[in-house]
Amino acid sequence: MTELDAKEATKEEGPEAKSYLDALAKARRSSRPKRDDDHDGHYVFNLGENLTPRSKIASIVGTFGRVLECWDCQTREYVTIKIVRSIRKYHDAAMIEIDILQHLAKNEKGTSGRVQIRNWFDIRNHICIVFEKLGPSLFDFLKRNKYSPFPVDLVREFVHQLLESVAYMHDLLLINTDLKPENILLVSSEYVKLPGWKSSAIKLIDFGTTAFDNQNHSSIVSTRHYRAPEIILVSLAFLQMNLSGALFQTHENLEHLAMMEMVLGPLPEHMIRRARKIFRSGSRLNWPEGAVSRESIRAVKKLDRLKNMVSQHVESSRYFLADLLEGLLKYDPSERLTARQALNHPFFSESK
Predict the structure, then answer these.
(1) DSSP string covering 321-336, please?
(2) Residues labelled as active-site residues
(3) Residue 141, pLDDT above cutoff 70
């Protein structure tokens, strides 16, 4: 609201209106203070001030970039606003995310498994995306419950919803390249207590690295702990819910492959032929000879075969769970279960 707006506001309210000075003071309170960005290009703000005349900042709900919970004075409800850094690559990713979210919403049928975009705007070259307010992430959920593994029935509900969302995106030729517990949010704003959770409804967030299947995109597109074609990302998030930790906790390519072989068995010959640099003569991975440290070797040795890990952490549904995970984690994409095929797996029907 400008000074002219304040004058107009007093005219519209008639003889019982507040004084011009009161209206002007209100206008000044609702305006954004003018500040420079911080040295990393983040938007600088204080809690309690207005982001826009319509949105008042209530709290911080995200650490990557700036994700705020704001009170929408027009709709009288809380919303989540993601404020993107004023750096070109983040600006471009935000515009991709807006396009993807609008594309998903346009084709939506029935209940959505993805966060709903309400609006977007630009403040001083910061793209701001307004979302519905959701609850904590599955990562926060795990942390809140001291990283205890989720009950199998709860995992079943979470993963079925996750696969439905991925299958829907595949139908639209979209690839979500950053699926992980931090990007899967509970719909309920209340933290779920274990045991006896209140709601298992979840939604996906963060589509800034989503790509169309017919586009050329970088081979390095996701958080390394979950890096793979995204149907594998589903299963790795799946395992984190069951095992209370990321399966492949590594930041080095060779170690990552060694971990995969330890858990899933040797890579297929036809795939090895494409990557001779990291293999010795024959089909043996250059491990542990190529390890960068003793710690790396120990980290690989601590892992066990997938079926054994499932048996150690899961009492019921062990056979079907292990079988589903093995199907989702096949090395060869032509042999790997698709999201739609996985939805028909006996793991999801055995409890019905």
Answers:
(1) HHHHHHHHT-SSTTTS
(2) 178
(3) yes
Give the three-state DSSP class for 79.
Answer: strand
Write down the CATH superfamily of domain 138-348.
Transferase(Phosphotransferase) domain 1 (1.10.510.10)
**pTM over 0.85, yes/no:** no
Residue 192 has pLDDT above 90, yes or no: no
283-304 per-position pLDDT tens digit: 788 899 889 999 999 999 999 9
Q: Residue 29: helix, strand or coil by DSSP?
A: helix
Q: What fold characterizes domain 31-132?
A: Transferase(Phosphotransferase); domain 1 (1.10.510)
Q: Give the domain ranges of the chain.
A: 31-132, 138-348
In order of 242, 292, 349, the CA distances from 153 in angstroms are 11, 40, 11
Helices of type H across the chain: 3-12, 20-29, 88-106, 138-144, 152-171, 230-243, 253-264, 269-272, 294-301, 306-313, 318-328, 339-343
Mean pLDDT of the chain: 81
Q: Is 138-348 in the same CATH topology as 31-132?
A: yes
* Both tokens assigned to 331: 């090395």
Q: Which two tokens stand for residue 75?
A: 């709709």
Q: Bin 56: left if φ > 0, else alpha if -120 < ψ < 50, else beta.
A: beta
